[in-house]
Amino acid sequence: MRIKWWRPKEKEAAVSSILLPAVTTVDESWKGAAEAITRVARSKLGMTKPGRQKLAKQTWLWTDHVKDRIREKKSKQYHAFLVEKTADNL
Fold first, then answer.
1. Which end of the chain has the smaller Cβ count within 10 Å, N or C?
2. pTM (global) more than 0.85
3. What does the DSSP assignment read for 25-66?
4. How far is CA 79 from the centre of its chain?
């Protein structure tokens, strides 16, 4: 299972309000911070379910401008391939 780290914008206030305990050594500080961040991230952002695929490059986040640019780039690449297409590179 993985933490849904791509969702922090929705839960930014909860993640930023993590209280870290006072400790004495650097190692304890890092360990405590990591545990606190992971614990809050699991509870606020959620966890993925085992066996499910992550959304394919999260294309639902793409704007129309980005989609148009990707479409143009793919078209140019495909046409360049067709120009150089031979029996050797198939």
1. C
2. no
3. SHHHHHHHHHHHHHHHHHHHH-BPPTTPPPPGGGGGG--HHH
4. 31
